[in-house]
Write a structure and sequence with these properties.
The radius of gyration is 13 Å and the shape is globular. The chain has one domain. By secondary structure, it is mainly alpha-helical. The two termini are 26 Å apart. The protein has five helices and no strands.
Length: 97
């Protein structure tokens, strides 16, 4: 089974399961994961990646957070740069908005 990083780096393939909290818990032998933590960390990664893009890094050099967050995910609505970027990247890769 591929690890999370390998699944996220796979271009054009949304390898993350619909219930990442459950999959993550099973993978690490836990019963549950924290929903707050599972929202907080993707947001942190997304904000850092967007800052890197603004500093001149290329899309291929940043974490592809748009493969985990879609335009309707509650975490996406909290991003400082909004959902438009996420939706555009998902569309570019052939993923559902």
């Amino acid at each position: 089974m591929k690890n999370w990083n390998d699944r996220l780096k796979a271009p054009g393939i949304n390898g993350v399961k619909p219930t990442p909290r459950t999959a993550l818990a099973i993978e690490h032998g836990a019963e549950v994961t924290c929903p707050v933590t599972m929202g907080y960390h993707p947001r942190t990664v997304a904000e850092a990646a967007k800052e890197d893009l603004e500093r001149g890094m290329t899309l291929s050099d940043v974490a592809p957070f748009w493969r985990v967050l879609d335009a309707k995910t509650p975490t996406t609505r909290k991003l400082s740069f909004g959902a438009e970027f996420v939706a555009a990247q998902r569309k570019r890769e052939g993923l559902k908005p």
